[in-house]
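User: Good morning. I'm curious how 5'-O-[(L-methionyl)-sulphamoyl]adenosine would be positioned relative to this chain. Could you predict the structure with it bound?
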Amino acid sequence: MKSDKFYITTPIYYVNDEPHIGHAYTTVLADVLARYHRLFGQRVFFLTGVDEHGQKLKEAAQAAGQDPQAFCDRMVGRFLATWKKLNITNDDFIRTTSDRHKKVVRHILSEIYRKGEIYTGQYEGWYCVPEERFWTEKDLMDGNCPSCGRGVKRIAERNYFFRMGKYQDWLIGYIQDHPSFIQPATRRNEVLGFLNRPLGDLCISRPRKRLSWGIPLPFDPDYVTYVWFDALINYVSAIGYDTDDSAFQRWWPATYHLIGKDILTTHCVYWPTMLKAAGIPLPETVFAHGWWLIKETKMSKSLGNVVRPLELADRYGVDPLRYFLMREMVLGQDASFSEEAFRGRYDSDLANDLGNLVSRLNRMVASYFDGKIPSKGGRPAVNELVNQTLRTPKGVKELVEGLKVNQAVETVLNLIRRTNKYLEDEAPWKLIRVDRERTAGVLYNALEALRIAVYLLYPIMPSKMGELLDWLGVSPSAVRFDQDLVWGKLTPGRTLSDRGALFPRIGTKEIRVPIGKQIKEELQEMITIEDFKMVDLRVARVVSAERVPGADKLLKIKIDLGTEQRQIVAGIAEHYTPEDLVGKDIAVVINLKPARIRGVESNGMLLAAEDKDGVVLVTLDQPTQSGTKIS
Ligand code: MSP
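Assistant: Good morning! Here's the predicted structure, ligand included:
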């Protein structure tokens, strides 16, 4: 039986780093998973925190002219503020300089030492200060650190070693027997590949005279603990290992340690062997996600391409940032971050699909039903929309449990798109003239599909979806997945307060819409009738038109679609004057993604043909009601 508890962790971030989009990604992902599992009815514990010891920290504190502890106390604020702003619902925040953590580190060290798993020996090797690790002669690349490329120092000193090598065969067997221990499979293979070579013992101490900023070894105060040995233990110290047995039993083993692929070896080789030596069961899954790249390159301070999450959240809002991070990264693979992609995603999914659905429903309920959620009466027989709505929660749950968050998001967005399509098919703006009861049913159905979609997007965009749930008169708290995410729970009669745009459009990059291009033979592929139906073609009457200043070919045209008026931009100014156009019934594609053309918003595209004599508009040969579908 699947356990009803869910314990999820993020890496603890180096406290002196400035929080960037990579840190934000892992933490938002953990938060989204934690929120989903709460929605599924599980008991959840979500841990994050900071890593505060080691040489780099010591040096950064010195450079800032502060004592290391005071420095950490100051720096930790940036992480706390970032997580607060990004709406992170961690249950605990662990600091490695806290007494509760240091106590557990010392306890585990004493235990392992007592069992004879730690010995002292002479260590000689090449030491990389920034990476805080030793390398052998053959590891070096051109005499430099193979990991970061910086210079290394020759160091010989007496140190303490953990007998990690003796666990090599056991670890290989464990990984082979537990396919879900390291995920995704590519990372599992990477670790198994690493374990093909002999596994040495791990140097777990640093002489205090060289590095004083660490946890002293309980059995030799002249040494401090190696920073990774200290840091990994946070996952058990935070939940009361050796200090609060019932809490520890409640939460351990962790369901997921989420990490970036950069820290695979420490989590999949050091950590399991440390736990084995200490007699503690292993976590269920270590999941390593990919990197956020900035246009294919790694983010780094020296390249000046570091993306700061708070700046993005200030500019576009916290929820769109969370949405983008979850929607764009296929878990396990690298993803590329660009502000342009961010804006595109925002406009197409949030402003267009979701935002439009809400504003349409808001408008129609206000004008046809006095702002009140209409009764279910007159609902058309069970239809595709109802079926899809009923399938969606289960589908999302399975995808989230399989760590396919981007697909889960897409599944909900598909429901939203389906609901928009349903409205277009049922056309309540026409139906209201002939059948009020059926119109009520259509709007009820659309609102009900929206309610379920909003519940399912709540873990991703808690603040905006919270507003929407409130608007619909339902509560985000105490929601029961199996009882509340079913059809027909929305109560008719409640007034929907008039609300402004949920996600105001930000406008994507200028896109030139070519018109009347001759169809090239090589592009003539066969399409199905379903493909064709995806293009929503309508009759539109031109209300007004004017030239776009500074653009010889462009006209800005206002069109009437019966239920709404829109603006489109078309490259026909060399062939038509504004006066030629007014009053004409033309053919327009209305479900084309909005674009800005020379800075002017275009919400659709007219049809025209171009031959050697110029451009000719596609028009209707008799006056036709605006908004009529062309098929
Ligand atoms: N302190 C160690 C972790 C100890 S855990 C017991 C550490 N800290 S870190 O500040 O460098 O954070 C590394 C983590 O930040 C990565 O594993 C990943 O979760 C996240 N990211 C940092 N840069 C990233 C990207 N560019 N893209 C995605 N996530 C990355 O290592």
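The first strand starts at residue 5 and ends at 9. Residues 11-14, 17, 22-23, 25-26, 51, 231-232, 234, 259-260, 262-263, 291-292, 299 surround 5'-O-[(L-methionyl)-sulphamoyl]adenosine (CB under 6 Å).
Let me know if you'd like a different ligand tried.
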